[in-house]
Design a protein that fits this description.
globular, five-stranded parallel β-sheet, single chain, binds flavin-adenine dinucleotide
Amino acid sequence: MAETIYDVAIIGGGPAGYTAAIRAAQYGLKVALIEKDSKLGGTCLHWGCIPTKAILFNAEIWDHLKHAKEYGIDGVGEVTVNWPEVLKRKNAIVTKHAKGLDFLMRKNKVTVVSGHGRLTGPATSGVHTVEVSAGNGDKATVSEVKTKNVILATGSDAKMLPGLQADSTILTNMEILHIDRVPKSLIVIGAGAVGVEFASIFRSFGSEVTIVEYLPRLVPVEDEDISKELARLYRKRGIDINVGAKVEKVEKTGTGVKVTFTSSEGNTEVKEAEKVLVAVGRAPRTENVSLDKTKIKLERGFIPTDQWMETAEPGVYAIGDIVAGMPQLAHVGAMCGMVVAAHLAGKYARPVNRNRIPGCTYTEPQIASVGLTEAQAKEKGYNVKVGKFPFTGNSKASIVDSHDGFLKIVTDSKHGEILGVHIIGPSATELIAEAVTAIELEATLEEMMFTIHAHPTLAEGLLDAYGSVEGMAINA
Ligand SMILES: Cc1cc2nc3c(=O)[nH]c(=O)nc-3n(C[C@H](O)[C@H](O)[C@H](O)COP(=O)(O)OP(=O)(O)OC[C@H]3O[C@@H](n4cnc5c(N)ncnc54)[C@H](O)[C@@H]3O)c2cc1C
């Protein structure tokens, strides 16, 4: 029988890889998806987006139950967290969606190849050979996949501070999902999305939480006003915040862990806790695919690509957390996968525009943004005009008892272009979809001010926020 030559072979079955596989198959391409783990889904499904948001939902319910009396619901009594049940529910959700991915592969006739994939060098007569070996790549080659194109989608690993190793006290996003009970106290090193999300979850469940962040503010990639509001609300929730703080030492004690850091004022400070979560970023997994056999030159570990995600090696593409200059987010990897699939199939495609990527942080309160911050817009020389509307003026926010936060719109006064939208408050991560669409379709401020928003909704807050740019919010 003639050897199968695939149109595209994808190495890595996380959200970037599996989305590329499905979309390429939908276009009629012959697709192989190579995954080294026993289940598809990658970091996002097993250790990231889905498990954390599942647990955040438990925390949200818990927060509501604490206020049951205020909502006129009697008889709830004293509520306690059953942590093993929280984890069980999380595991059930993850398993359900992992099975869903297996189904989608069968449905779309994607061949799933189990094992560790690596490149063998440039294509010969237009055909690449991907070597697949068992385990983590340390075992003998078990098969070879012949393909016209390769997409690398190998994802990332949690970074560790130098000299530290993760265990049951020093945790990354993986170990923390295995702890056997809610810790009495937790130090979170790093206040990016992952750090502040876990801080929020465990504070809701009653842990004493301390955040230590090197940069001068929480969620440093967000608009400064958002960082300030989050810090204010976290302090109100009793979270100890230390920004501009340089960690000097992390030591285990008999009962937990001790973190020594230099504070923003230059003082040496020591905090102790039962556990420490290290959330200092993600390192691209680009060491394990034999890139040395290609023309690809890494940029600080990341793979540079062109607008169609093609690397310096013809016929080899890269998507997801390994791509230089792209935010490490599941939806970015997935969209890059869809772009490559369309490009390879010769169908309409448009490159991912960095300024149109939503960023969401699923804390309490939620944060979501798209486009330029006020500072970035000023730096780029726009005639910046900003509007801000507080959730206190929104009736649905009263109904859902969530008044903290605001919606901020950054515009260019010349043509009314919407440059950025920044939200902190209830359902921010859902509300941002409207702003992404508006920016994607290049809607002007005037157009959005005359777009009908249903009443009473949190989305109406956006209508007021657009109006506030012209000093014409109705409800403030
Ligand atoms: C705690 C946490 C929460 C997060 N929450 C969110 C969120 O809410 N929203 C969001 O958008 N993003 C979130 N992220 C980020 C998101 O998880 C990543 O951006 C996303 O998983 C990247 O997708 P990927 O496909 O590039 O890589 P991954 O998901 O890491 O998948 C890569 C896959 O490739 C496989 N692989 C690697 N090397 C090989 C090889 N040589 N051969 C075969 N297989 C290989 C791996 O086993 C893995 O299955 C979160 C991350 C963390 C850590």
